[in-house]
Amino acid sequence: MNTSKSPKRHRLFNIRIKSPSAKVTKKFGETLGLELRKKIPKVNGALVISLRGELGSGKTTLIQGIARGLGLKRHIVSPTFLLMRVYAIAKKQKRKLLHIDAYRIATKKDAAILENKDFFNNPAHIVAVEWPERIPHLMRKRTIEITIKHGTSEHERSIIMKT
User: What is the pTM of this model?
Assistant: First the structure.
């Protein structure tokens, strides 16, 4: 009988949904936020959610839903011109949602402000990154990856989530 412990394995998920509207996209985000609120997976550093998709695909809409599910009452807007917005989730636990929009980052030098801070290393942070391909050197291997694609009708979206 082998008594050695096997390494801990993490369950992988691949979820695909069709969203007919922004309302349903937001509701999907809210469901994800509620699950994260119940139990945030233990990872080294922040829990990172990467959101890929074309302009206008619904990345910010999805983050608005995640924020609602996490219990935030504030209106979430895209930080395109600010690079990042920070929202307190639970003051007692010092949990924060960091919403980063890397669309305007063109070089590593542009991303320097994100490298010099504890944004990605703090386990009390949930970091939602739009346009993660612009800051690949900052992204973590263990990330919730979400891709949003335009569907066949104006408001339809395909959402693919991998963990």
Answer: 0.85
